[in-house]
Amino acid sequence: xxxxxxxxxxxxxxxxxxxxxxxxxxxxxxxxxxxxxxxxxxxxxxxxxxxxxxxxxxxxxxxxxxxxxxxxxxxxxxxxxxxxxxxxxxxxxxxxxxxxxxxxxxxxxxxxxxxxxxxxxxxxxxxxx
Length: 129
Ligand code: FES
Hints:
Layout: H1 2-25, E1 34-38, E2 41-45, H2 53-59, E3 77-82, H3 92-97, H4 100-105, E4 107-109, E5 121-125
Parallel strand pairs: 1-5
Antiparallel strand pairs: 1-2, 3-4, 3-5
């Protein structure tokens, strides 16, 4: 009995993982992607207008540090390396928490920044600690 379940589990996991991985990371022609990068890991997701970076991460099971979700702790701080023009302007909370130089260099708060237009966006998680 144990052997049956062991083999069944191995078959299922080896059969599902490659497809699951491909579905989440492959870009289809003409598709716009939001690439979330955290350390060595990255995942492409479909960008949705009006949704924050943090919500994109949470909705797609990407572990993205957060605590307050109101712009004060900066655990969700990130660097926008592509597509900053497709995101909302820094709001009051971001301007209060981040230095003007940081904002100019492309650093934002994931819980405050929303996608405004569809397009290719790359975001790297960059907390202070
Ligand atoms: S979760 Fe605290 S600033 Fe974004």
